[in-house]
Amino acid sequence: MGVPRKRIVVLGSTGSIGRSVLDVAARLPESFEIVGLSALTNGRLLSEQATRFGVRRVAFGGPPQAATFGPGVVVRSGPSALEAMAADPDADLVVNALVGASGLRPTAAALRAGKRVALANKESLVMAGEIVTRLAAESGAEIVPVDSEHSAILRCLRAAAAGEAAGLVLTASGGPLRDLPLAEMEAARVPDVLAHPTWSMGAKVTVDSATLMNKAMEVVEARWLFGVPLDDIEVVVHRQSIVHSFVRLRDGSLIAHLGDPDMRVPIQFAMCYPDAPALPFVRSRPETFGSLSFEPVDPRRYPCFGLMIGAARDGGTAPAVAAGADEVAVAEFIAGRIRLTDIARVVEGTLARVEAGAADSLESVIDADLRARAVAGELVLGIERLVA
Ligand code: MG
User: How many CB atoms lie within 10 A of CB 363?
Assistant: First the structure.
């Protein structure tokens, strides 16, 4: 056909999203060529992926890891290697599937270089939404969401007339602990929290789903991605994860995108964008959906949700502070050092202690994140002593 293949860099290729991106690419070899891959520590899988896709450039996000790569493969390491890969002149599309604040600078580097970015890294927009969207506007680069909710919204917006959309309604599964008695939330164990009822995802986002921090971050993402004020973005708990989100129209009606939950659907959409995705990863059948339920968010069950939304209303570096504190607290929870309910305590305490300022540069945002991490670490130590 003579249509050149889309050349893709996958940052975070060994994680849940990254592996799905490569799964899609392997099924559409005439459409996609993988030109760069990065991992944090999983050198063995990174090496396998590089061999399988004939990739010549790989990077480790942190220190170099012991791994053997084929001849001619250039291996770099450290955060600057990720930024260089994100701006790779050979890449048409950068998939950012990095976890946490480490994703921010590579997103900025890709956008500065005018790349289309398929963004799975929520922190890029949560920490620095104004800066990131400005960088995209300046270079003419596009940000395409990978998150299922934002992907659904983008598809619904295509169905609305110009100026017809009046708001967004994001759906939330409620996470693995949505039915646990409130008094038992404190004793929730790590394996229970990591067993998500409807979506298969990485550990950080699965814990964030249990606290609904993830959904609050998605509200902030949606605000920047679609230019919708916070007050016009609602969230409903929808247990079945069949309705991936809604767009509210000016006449009060709603448009929704529905389907069986499989992350390869939004991932393929982002990879093919603006063209239509073709591979049917699901075959959604309404008769198998059963009853669909929609409930309001219970603020007592999900204090992290309100903390992040409050930080977003405060603006400036406050969302970066909340996100940094959450990243520390979630890691400490997964390591078994604090309880699930302590995550909100750490986020709230950090927001109270770290003064927010203007988010007028990447440096100011990253500085706020680092200060938040230091304070969150101190708060964790205090909690550990109580638990011990
Ligand atoms: Mg999501």
Answer: 8
In a domain, 252, yes or no: yes
- Provide the domain count of the chain: 2
Which residues have CB under 8 Å from 189's CB, separation 6+? none
Residue 202 confidence class, pLDDT cut points 50, 70, 90: confident
Cα 257 to ligand 1 centre (Å): 14
pLDDT tens, residue by residue, 29-88: 999 999 999 999 999 999 999 999 999 999 999 998 988 999 999 999 999 999 999 999
Ligand 1 centroid to residue 147 C-alpha, Å = 5
The residues with which 247 forms a beta bridge, in sequence order, are 168, 255
Give me ligand 1 centre to Cα 245, in Å.
10
Residues 320 and 180 in one domain: yes
Read off the DSSP letter of residue 184: G
| CA–CA gap between residue 64 and residue 268 (Å, rounded) | 31
313, 230 in Cβ contact below 8 A? yes
Same domain? For 112 and 192 the reply is no
| Number of residues that this document lists for the chain | 388
How far is the C-alpha of 206 from the C-alpha of 89, rounded, in Å?
A: 34
Q: Same domain, yes or no, for 96 and 229?
A: no
> Given a cut of 90, is residue 196 above it in pLDDT?
no
Among 145, 168, 185, the domain boundary falls at: 145
Residue that finishes a domain, picked among 96, 130, 145? 145
Distance of CA 120 from the midpoint of ligand 1 (Å): 9
Task: With respect to residue 307, please indicate whether it lies within any of the assigned structural domains.
Answer: yes
Same-domain pairing of 194 and 251: yes
Considering the domain architecture, whether residues 154 and 132 belong to the same structural domain is answered as no
Q: Work out the mean pLDDT of the chain and round it to a whole number.
A: 95
Residues 241, 141, single domain; the answer is no
Per-residue confidence band for 384, with pLDDT thresholds at 50, 70 and 90? confident
Tokens of 70: 């084929």
Residue 23 shares a structural domain with residue 133: yes
Q: How far is the CA of 247 from the centre of ligand 1 (A)?
A: 16
Domain that holds residue 85: 6-145
Average pLDDT over residues 154-182: 95
> Which tens digits make up the pLDDT trace of 96-138?
999 999 999 999 999 999 999 999 999 999 999 999 999 999 9
Distance 2 CA to ligand 1 centre (A): 36
